[in-house]
Specification:
Length: about 450
């Protein structure tokens, strides 16, 4: 098994890390990341990489030094899983006890194993996954405060794990999916500091699609509805084990792109050629069109490709293409073109969200013997790449230098932070790259090997 998927049980608290090179002294916040780190059950192992138990990892920066804390979320999933059981319906793993399996056929129990990402929502710091259950934690100590759900009028048993924040409007925007006799998507907004979401639009749907993230421009919420869909009745029939079991790829259907007006909630929809995606990169209005950049795949086979019976035969990374999809707002034809290949886990500078931009940062995948990092110049189709043999890098998070935080020109003036696993050393390090040159500034060694994480945020 690749060390990216090996269970780590050790937790350390506020440990100073040895640094090679330098850590810029202007870095004074913390990078908090999330991801699975425990994969065993009494019967063996969870079925899918996405089902490992959530572990938070924090890198606190102060005056050129780095301090590291890692801690499992203390959730219901953690308590049952550390006893060897799976009690809830996970992404690719069903409940293990007969009692829970029978119950889950009637009322699937949403997991609180919030291992996907972290965010500030409603004035709290939370860990998020694809169920409505989020976990509130202390961003300094990583102590778990508890599992919460929104108590509001927005329904749904499933959510897009990623929530887009708009600092100018002072709100976050997200999506829930309600499965039932009639199913629907619910686009919501959550004003900063508020505890209740407001439904912006409701779209009826026969077979809901899998949605992991949406696009956000100043005017629109962009919902690409991919043809990887679930017949809601399948959730009620025996034989459905995990969430993803209910989904199937329909190559004969289009990807339907919905534009939801952020002011009045009106929706316009247009068909595009079928594709699958997890992550939008960025989106913006250019007057005539909505421009949506995302990492796409020709079909949904990547979902099964990340299950452990496939991963075991070699790391099959989520290798996608960075594509630019242009959606004319007058209902014309959708066009798209490829900006880069072999990328995953894309990010941009926070200064260019919802704006024409130049640089996308991503994992450079597809090599097998290593996973690098790439800075893609989306305007000039040029790239800079970092890689090292035997080293496997995770999602790159770009942190702009203070003076660059409000300027588009500053979208490379800062550092790129990524947690890298050195397979031979059997240890991970936090890698810092200069955003302009994409060369190494420094690395801080962890006391152990961290399994591959999903997403993180820099809290300044
Ligand atoms: Fe994600």
């Amino acid at each position: 098994m690749h060390p990216w998927f090996r269970t780590l049980t050790e937790e350390v608290r506020d440990r100073p890390l040895p640094v090679e090179g330098t850590v810029p002294d202007w870095l004074d916040g913390a990078l908090v990341r999330n991801g699975p780190a425990h994969f065993e059950t009494a019967e063996g192992r969870v079925n899918h990489w996405f089902d490992g138990l959530a572990m938070l990892r924090r890198f606190g920066f102060d005056d050129g030094a780095v301090r590291y804390t890692n801690r499992f979320l203390r959730t219901e999933a953690y308590r049952s899983r550390t006893n060897g059981d799976v009690d809830a319906t996970e992404f690719g793993t069903g409940p293990t006890s007969l009692r829970r399996r029978l119950e889950s056929l009637l009322v699937p129990t949403a997991t609180d194993n919030a291992n996907v990402t972290v965010a500030r929502l409603g004035g709290r710091t939370v860990a998020l996954t694809e169920t409505p259950r989020m976990v509130v934690f202390d961003p300094e100590t990583l102590l778990t405060f508890g599992t919460r759900q929104f108590d509001d009028e927005v329904p749904g048993q499933w959510t897009a794990a990623h929530v887009e924040h708009d600092g100018e409007r002072g709100e976050s925007v997200g999506l829930t999916v309600r499965f039932g006799r009639t199913s629907s998507y619910h686009v919501y907004r959550l004003p900063d500091g508020a505890r209740e979401r407001i439904e912006l639009a409701r779209l009826q749907v026969g077979e809901p699609a899998y949605v992991h993230s949406v696009g956000l421009t100043d005017r629109y919420v962009v919902l690409p509805e991919v043809p990887f869909t679930a017949d809601p009745r399948r959730f009620l029939r025996p034989g459905i084990d995990s969430f993803v079991d209910a989904f199937a790829w329909h190559p004969e259907r289009p990807t339907r792109v919905h534009l939801v007006d952020r002011d009045d909630g009106s929706v316009s929809s247009v068909d595009a050629s079928p594709f699958f995606f997890f992550h939008t990169v960025n989106a913006f209005d250019d007057g005539e069109s909505v421009v949506l950049d995302l990492v796409s795949f020709p079909d949904a086979s990547v979902v099964e490709g990340l299950s452990f019976d496939r991963v075991e035969r070699g790391v099959r990374e989520a290798t996608g293409a960075l594509r630019r999809v242009r959606i004319p707002v007058d209902g014309g034809r959708v066009s798209d073109r490829t900006l880069a290949s072999n990328v995953a886990l894309p990010r941009t500078s926070p200064t260019v969200r919802r704006r024409p931009y130049r640089y996308a940062y991503a994992q450079r995948t597809g090599e097998g013997e290593f996973t690098g990092l790439a800075r893609v110049d989306v305007e000039r189709a040029a790239e800079r790449v970092w890689s090292e043999r035997g080293c496997f890098a995770g999602e790159p998070v770009f942190v702009p230098r203070e003076t660059a935080r409000r300027e588009r020109d500053g979208e490379a003036d800062g550092v790129v932070c990524s947690v890298v696993l050195d397979r031979d050393a059997e240890r991970s390090f936090l890698l810092l790259l200069d955003g302009e040159t994409f060369e190494e500034v420094g690395r801080a060694w962890l006391p152990h090997a961290l399994p591959l994480g999903f997403h993180g945020e820099y809290f300044g």
